[in-house]
Amino acid sequence: MTDTAYNFAYLDEQTKRMIRRAILKGLAIPGYQVPFASREMPMPYGWGTGGVQVSAATLTPDDRLKVIDQGADDTTNAVSIRKFFERTAGVATTEATAEATVIQTRHRIPEVPLTEGQILVYQVPIPEPLRFLEPRETETRKMHALEEYGLMHVKLYEDIARHGQIATAYAYPVKVEGRYVMDPSPIPKFDNPKMSDCGAIQLFGAGREQRIYALPPWTQVVSLDFEDFPFEASKADAACDLCGAENSYLDEVITDDAGGRIFVCSDTDYCRSRREAGFVGAQGEEQVA
Amino acid sequence: MQTEALQGGFADPAVDAAHAFRAAMEAMARPGTIQTVAGAEPPAPLSQAAGVLLLTLCDAETPLHLAGAHDCAAVRDWVVFHTGAPLVGAEKAMFALGDWAALQPLDRFPVGTAQYPDRSTTLVVEMSALEAGGATLSGPGIRERAALSLPEVAAFQRNAMLYPLGVDFYFTAGAQLAALPRSITVEG
Lengths: 289, 188
What we know:
Helices cover 26% and strands 17% of the residues of chain A. Chain A is of the alpha/beta class. Chain A folds into two domains: 13-223, Bacterial phosphonate metabolism protein PhnH (Rossmann fold), CATH 3.40.50.11310; 235-282, no CATH class.
C-alpha cells in the first residue's frame, strides 16, 4: 500500500523532471558529472540521498527493487531505503539480483552479471575523482574540460613508489570511453571490470555534492594503470567459508575474541543462492532441503 | 472559450510520466532502439510521442523553441498550459521541437561549454516514420552496431565531432520515439 499523502515515489513532479533531465544528459555524455539541484530527503546526507533521488525519478509502479549496502540486503541502510520505496512508491521488492529491475547499491556491484533491462543506481559520496588531489571545484572542472588527468597518474605512481604497487583498493579511478575520468563510487576495485561492457544502465547519484552521472550499457570503462603495473582486480586470497565460492568478493568477519575469523561473500544474495544450490564452504553447514 | 488546449495531458501525471521517462531513458541509453509511449493527446501537428516527451521533460525551467509548422497557436497554447515552458528563440533553447527542415540550421542551438557540456539543447525532431534501418550507429549504449532511419548523416557526424559538446536528438513519429546522443558515431 502506498502512503497516499505523498506523491508517487516521494518527490514532487518538478523535482523528478529536473533529475530526469540530468540523467539524460549524463547518459549522453558518459562519465561527465551533471550538476543537479539535490533536495532534502527524509534521511541525512551520507545515507544515500543521491541514489534515492535517482531511484525515485527512475522507478515506475511495475518495477521490482533491490537495495544493497556493501553487498548485503539486510543491513540498516538497505532495509530503510527498501522500506522507503515500498511505502512511497508501492513497488515490489526482492533480494534476488536476477529478478530485480532496479538495484540501488552502496559500494558493491552484485556478483551475478547484470543484464539488459536492469538499472543499477549507485550511492556516491564524493563524485569528483580529482577532489583529494585538487580541492577547488573551479580547478577540477577545468581539468575535466582540458582532459588534464596527469595528476591522477602521479597519484597512482606515488602509490607504486611508496608501496611497490598501486595501493588504491576502492574508488579506483576509471576512464570512460577514452574521455572522462570518473569515480566509480567506493566499490572495491575487484568490481571495476564489471562496469565495462555491462548490459545494464548504470546511474550514479551524489546527493550532498549535487552531481549525477551515468554509463549507458556496453560502455567501455577502463581502470587507470601503467604498462608495467597493470590494473589487478584483487580480493582476499581465500574462499567463502559458508558457500565455498572462490571468485566472489569476500568480507573478513571476526567471530570471537580469540582471533577467530572467517571469510564470507560480501554479496549475501549470491552466497545464499549458492548454499541453497548445495555448495558448502569450509565452515558452512549442509542446507537441509 | 477555446478548451482544446486544456485537453490531452497525462491522466495520472506521476505514473504516466514515470513510464514515459523510462522509455525516453531507454531510448537515450540504447541509441537506435525504438520505444513506444502513450498518455498524451496533443493537438496536430504535434505527434503523440513528442507530446509525451514535452510533458515528461519540460516545465517552467526549460526554455522551449518551437520551429516551423509546430510554432502555431494550437501547439503554443497546449505546451504553455500543460508545461509552463517559456517559448524562446533557438539561441536560448534547452529543448527544441520541429521537423528536420524547420530546425535548420543546427548551429543556432547551444552546444554547451567545455566546463559544462550539459548546457546544450535537446532537439525533438518530428519524423514521418521511424525504422531500424538506414544510418549505422556505434558508440556507448550500442553493443556492436545499431541502425536508425535518420533524416541525414553529415549533420550528425559534425555534431559528434564536437564531443563532449554538442546537441542531443530525439526522433518522434506517431507514438514511437528513438534517440541519438552526441556520443554516437554515425556512418552512412
